[in-house]
Amino acid sequence: MPTFTVVYKDSNGDTVRGQKASSSREAILADLRSSGFVPISVAPAEVGPDEEEGQRAPARRRRRGRIKLSETALAFRTLATMLGGGLPIMDCLVDIAEQSDSARFREILLAATTDVRKGSMLSSAMAKYPEAFSPLVCSLVEAGEESGNLTEVLTQLSEYLESQLDLRRKIKVSTIYPAFIVSFFMVALAVVVFFVLPKFKEIFDNVDTQLPALTRVVMSVSDILTRHILYLLPCLVGAVIGFLLWRRTSSGRRIIDTVLLRAPIIGKLTSQIVIARLTRTLSLLIDSGITIVEALKLSARVAGNTLISEQLEEVRRNILRGAHLSDQLASRRCFPRMMVRMTAAGEASGRLGDMLNRVAIHFTRESTARIDGMMAMLEPALLIVVGILVGIVVVAVYFPIFNLARSIS
Fold this sequence. Notes:
By secondary structure, this protein is mainly alpha-helical. It has 17 helices and 3 strands. It has helices at residues 25-34, 49-60, 69-84, 89-99, 103-117, 122-127, 135-147, 150-205, 213-227, 229-247, 250-262, 267-287, 292-302, 306-320, 325-330, 337-349, 352-408, and strands spanning 3-9, 15-21, 38-44.
């Protein structure tokens, strides 16, 4: 009988460590919960959580492009509905695969159906395809299978994925109009700089008159850009490509995430979005029966910010040593006070998942309202900036013409 290393909190709130022999990890979890204990970590004695993660790494390397989040969310919503109606899981998977618009996702679902038909658990079959099903998703499905509440967990999972989609759509829709304004202005400015201003420069060069300082500056900028465009354009493209490659490195991601969190205008919004995603993920994982340590590990992967992920990893390690979650959050400035207080209340009342969900709802509303406010301010600000730049060009071009006409008359 295999032996497991177990860490849990007893009825007095003390952290207890030890080893238990059992037929399965699920049996130990069930035994701990039935005794009124809070499981923190249950792992095979000979293989720790970090080594388990390493064993799963080769499967992740087989990625062949990510499946759209909307496809996954719709599949789980449909699967939950069909299972709730009493249909066999294999029939459900086949029907969902046939209705999918993605050929790759259809292939994955059919392959998973084959594994389930051979006796595999659904979570095990899904874990073979990390491009479609993240470790978080697989862990939640596994928790649903262990607890016998797969339909309920799938419903909660689909709602979680749909909430992530809604936030992405909100941000995308809010930025469409400003992006259109900026793009249109850049095209118009390029036409003026490379075609209109050179014509006026030829006219002014043939006129023996002193040009205003503003006109000389504008014409000089246009002349430099026109003469050196063949050198400037490759440099610009190279800089963009270099930035994108640097952003994928660990140091690049960390610097960008730090700037986003500390920026004067968007820092607050970035923090709200990250905390909303984090607390919603933690709430879903804890309510599904996943241990706190495992929930923190999975949440760190989807936090969306390197600094927050690093802090969560430190929190997870300290909880393994016996610390309380609320105390660890309170000692770190990146977690807001409301989250800390609600976490402490959840730990005291035994409703940690519910409290974290309330925090997620609060920060989701706050971030949505802030996005709306920022977009309402950004649109007129862009129009003002465009108007100022256009006004500068117009004044620089037509002021010398007015002076020339006055001197002729």
